[in-house]
Automatic annotation (TrEMBL):
Superkingdom field: Bacteria
Location of region: Disordered: 443-468
Pfam families membership: Cyt_bd_oxida_I (PF01654)
Protein family (similarity comment): Belongs to the cytochrome ubiquinol oxidase subunit 1 family.
Single Gene Ontology BP annotation: aerobic electron transport chain
Name of the protein this chain belongs to: Cytochrome ubiquinol oxidase subunit I
InterPro entries given in the database record: Cyt-d_ubiquinol_oxidase_su_1
Membrane spanning stretches: 21-45, 57-80, 100-122, 129-150, 188-212, 224-242, 325-349, 361-382, 408-434
Keywords for the protein's UniProt record, in alphabetical order: Cell membrane, Electron transport, Heme, Iron, Membrane, Metal-binding, Transmembrane, Transmembrane helix, Transport
Membrane topology of the entry: Multi-pass membrane protein
UniProt entry tagged with the keyword Transmembrane helix: yes
Naturally occurring in which organism (per UniProt): Pseudooceanicola pacificus
């Protein structure tokens, strides 16, 4: 069959891979940062011997174990899709991406798997030093895993260091150039800081939830909320700076993607506006009902109000990405990024006033922002990957030429099966994670003494203990 529910086989294969990747990535985006958070908690426990850190470690390691397991299981499926739905791409690009993905398994996954058991169960069996080393190596392994995957993806966006053989295969010629493509450092920094920020927001949301439920005298709750808000206040502005640098790099190497992100259907010889909102009409080649700030896009992208910027009117129609998806996913990511910055600044203001643990509206905002990191990284991934279309290997291999020769019915049926199984299995896993988070950490240590006063004295006591 040529179509299934109105979609051809290539479109269905893209939807299937996009669905499985988006579902998978929410788990590594959380576990990468959570592994580092656990390493910090363990190090603080060994250094200070404050029971709060140990109890927080024991609280979050259960959540990490479930998240890590779901990330591994959901990621296995994607490798099979390279052979089933994208066999032509696998054949042609395999000599380049195959070794890189194998390095990820040999270095990062084996490192994580080798020390995960010690991290989870070995504290009373191997001693504090080896247990700390295992915890740190698991955290390092998650970062190395992200490094190899980002390297593969970056080569697909900014390919270099290869030759094209007589049979059309991409053959490695310079591995250093393949690994360290022009977009690689920006993508890696953006992905890792996004993962750490995602974890901070989830931890902060859990802490805020328990503060709203009256756990003000629980030192574990206060400590996790304080640490998360410090992380948000520091990393959110850093992520905006890195994102801006990443955008400038994308403008240099993938200008068509930036045109779609900005919604520039037409060229601007005397300065391009920043379109805040609008309705992209790709068929008509215009942005309807646009709300824009004159010349601000040129200032951001070129640091010159009057700098000219090309638009999609300079690009052949068959080389344009789906503008509406890229335009709106980019705005979701940016809006959430500035909301994270606002939450971090709000927490600093509350901390300075001694109200960090006694500000209900801040806590409600933190709970609301808890899943925002997951949404932002998903929106960023959509912007990046949909903006690369219609190319699998940018400028060299089209998506329509990368797919396996399958009927739309076969791909559509497997897509429906994936959706049903994923929501059933991983939905149950997410519900279990939420139940774990709904329970407050064990108290362990006494909270503020009753004679310190109900609010201002307790807030002062909390500030003194959580200032570190």
């Amino acid at each position: 069959m040529d179509t299934f529910l109105g979609f051809d086989a290539v479109t269905l294969a893209r939807i299937q891979f996009g669905f499985t990747v988006a579902f998978h990535f929410i788990f590594p985006a959380f576990s990468i940062g959570l592994a580092s958070f656990l390493a910090v908690l363990n190090a603080m426990w060994l250094r200070t011997r404050q029971e709060t850190y140990l109890r927080l470690f024991n609280y979050w390691i259960k959540i990490f174990a479930v998240t890590f397991a779901m990330g591994v299981v959901s990621g296995i499926v994607m490798s099979y899709q390279f052979g089933t739905n994208w066999s032509v791409f696998s054949d042609r690009a395999g000599p380049v991406i195959g070794p890189l993905m194998a390095y990820e398994v040999l270095t990062a996954f084996f490192l994580e798997a080798g020390f995960l058991g010690i991290m989870l169960f070995g504290r009373d069996k191997v001693g504090d030093g080896l247990h700390m080393a295992a915890t740190a190596l698991v955290a390092v392994g998650t970062a190395i895993s992200a490094t190899w995957i980002i390297s593969v993806n970056s080569w697909m966006h900014t390919p270099q260091g290869h030759l094209i053989g007589e049979n059309g295969q991409f053959l490695p010629a310079d591995w250093m150039a393949i690994v360290f493509t022009p977009s690689f450092p920006y993508r890696l920094a953006h992905a890792l800081t996004g993962a750490y920020l995602t974890t901070a927001l989830i931890v902060g949301g859990v802490g805020a939830w328990h503060l709203l439920r009256g756990e003000h005298d629980n030192r574990g709750v206060r400590r996790m909320f304080s640490m998360a808000m410090w992380m948000a206040a520091i990393v959110a502005p850093l992520q905006i700076v890195i994102g801006d640098a990443h955008g400038l790099n994308t403008l240099e190497h993938q200008p068509v993607k930036v045109m779609a992100m900005e919604g520039h259907f037409e060229s601007y010889p005397d300065g391009a506006p920043l379109i805040l909102f609008g309705i992209p009409d790709q068929d008509a080649g215009e942005m309807r009902h646009a709300i824009e700030i004159p010349k601000l896009s040129s200032l951001i992208l070129k640091h010159d109000l009057n700098a000219p910027l090309d638009g999609l009117d300079t690009v052949p129609d068959e080389d344009e990405p789906p503008v509406a998806i890229v335009f709106w996913s980019f705005r979701v990511m940016v809006a959430l990024g500035f909301a994270m910055l606002g939450l971090g600044l709000w927490s600093l203001w509350a901390r300075a006033r001694g109200r960090l643990f006694y500000s209900p509206w801040l806590h409600r905002a933190a709970v609301l922002m808890g899943p925002s990191g997951l949404i932002a990284v998903t929106a960023g991934w959509i912007t990046t990957e949909v903006g690369r279309q219609p190319w699998t290997v940018y400028g060299l291999m089209r998506t329509e030429d990368s797919a396996s020769p399958l009927d739309a019915l076969a791909v559509g049926t497997s897509l429906i099966a994936f959706i049903v199984v994923y929501f059933a299995v991983f939905g149950a896993g997410v519900i279990y994670l939420l139940r774990l988070m709904a329970k407050a950490p064990q108290r362990g240590e006494d909270g503020p003494k009753q004679d310190e006063g109900p609010t201002h004295a307790a807030g002062r006591h909390a500030m003194q203990e959580d200032a570190t």
